[in-house]
Amino acid sequence: MGAPVDELLHLLDLETVEVDRYRGRSIDEDRLRVFGGQVAAQALVAAGRTVERGRVHSLHSYFLRPGDPHRPILYEVDRIRDGRSFTTRRVVAIQRGEAVFNLQCSFHVEEDGLVHEDPPPEAPAPEGLAPPGEPERDTRMAPRGFPEPHGLEVRFVTELPWTRDGEAGSRELLWLRAGGPLGDDPVVHAAVVVFASDLTLFDSILQRHGIPRGEPSVAGASLDHCMWFHRPLRADRWLLYEHRSPVAYGARGLAVGSLHDVEGHLVASVVQEGLVRLRPGSPYRARLGHADDGATGSGEAAGAGGPAAGTGPGGG
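Now predict its structure.
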C-alpha cells in the first residue's frame, strides 16, 4: 500500500458478500488474536453500509471468542429497526461458523436540542510533543506497535504505558489522529475513532497499580466496548484522549474515556470492562496481598493471551 493511512482505509473497506453480509481482512501481523479495535471498527462499517439516514451515536459490543488474524471475518448485519429519527443495527462477526464478536449500534438523524459539555483537560499542543519511542519488549498489544500504530499518529502527554515501573497513576492523556486524510464519510471517521480508542484504554486499569504494558505476569482480556458519539468529528484531525479506571474488583476493571477535538468540544465517550488476572508467581500478587496458590481462575483465563492492553476473548 501507499501511506499508512491508505492501509487503514483498506482495512475498513469491507468486501460485499451478499445483501447485509460483508467480509473483512485482518491486520497483517504476527498476533495471537485479532485486534479488538479492528473488529469493532469493521462491524460499525458493516452496519453503516445498511443505513441511509443519520450518524452513529452509540455502540455497545462484546468480545466473545478470540478472532484468528489469519482468517477472514464475516460480518452479518441484522436490520433491527428503521425509524424516523433512529436506526438500529445488530452485527455479528463470525469465524469458523461461530460468533467471535457482537455489536449493536444506533444512528440518529441530527436534531436541535440542549447543549452543554465538560471542558477538556489541560494539555500541551500535539505539535510540540515527540512521537513515542519503541517499547522495550514486544507487547503484542497494539497493531503494528508504536511509535505509529497502523496508520495513526499518537502523541502521549502522560507517561508512556510501557515505561512504568511500579509508579501508579490516575489517568492517561494522549493526542491521536489518522496519519492522513480520510475523506468525508462520517462512518469511516467514527470507525477510525473506534479503532483508535481500543489501543490504550485498557492501560488505565493497569496504570492504577503501576503495572507496565507488556508485563508478562499479568493476563488481560477486553470483555466489552461501548461508545457514544456526541458531535460530528473528524478522525484525521487531532483528538485529545483522556481515560482512567475508576474501579477494579473480582479480576475485572473498568476504564472510562473521553475524546475532545482541538476546539475543545467533547466529541465522544468510551467505556470498557476488562478481565485482569495475575499469573502464578506474579510479583503483583504479593504486592496486592494475594496468596500465590497457583490459581488463575476459570474460563479462558490462562488463555487470555499474555499481557493486558486490549487483548481479550475477542481479541480486544
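The helical segments are 4-12, 36-48, 186-197, 203-207, 283-287.
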